[in-house]
Write a structure and sequence with these properties.
The protein is an all-alpha fold. It has 3 helices and no strands. The chain has one domain. It is 91% helix and 0% strand.
């Protein structure tokens, strides 16, 4: 296994990680922005008001995008396992 191969595997893993985690980050960001605007408008500064909606949004996003995320991860792992013979020799 050459250093180039290791770098390609790492780059592919990071790409899959970013693609899989992006729906969760976008949902948390959107809900956080909405809650922050609400807090600024009403001058309510409660920490749980920011935390609970984000957790709910991430959970709903996992329910909706979960099958796609699992498919993407398993496809990447399958490609890695199928490429093992080429890595060895």
């Amino acid at each position: 296994m050459t250093p180039t191969t290791v770098i390609e595997i790492g780059r592919g893993a990071i790409e899959v990680l970013l693609v899989v985690s992006s729906p969760l980050f976008i949902a948390a960001l959107a809900v956080g922005l909405i809650v922050s605007i609400f807090q600024a408008a009403t001058q309510i500064n409660e920490a749980t008001l920011s935390f609970v909606p984000k957790v709910v949004a991430i959970f709903v996003t996992l329910l909706v995008a979960g099958p796609w995320m699992i498919t993407l991860l398993t496809d990447y792992m399958r490609r890695l396992y199928e490429a093992i013979p080429t890595f060895i020799g």
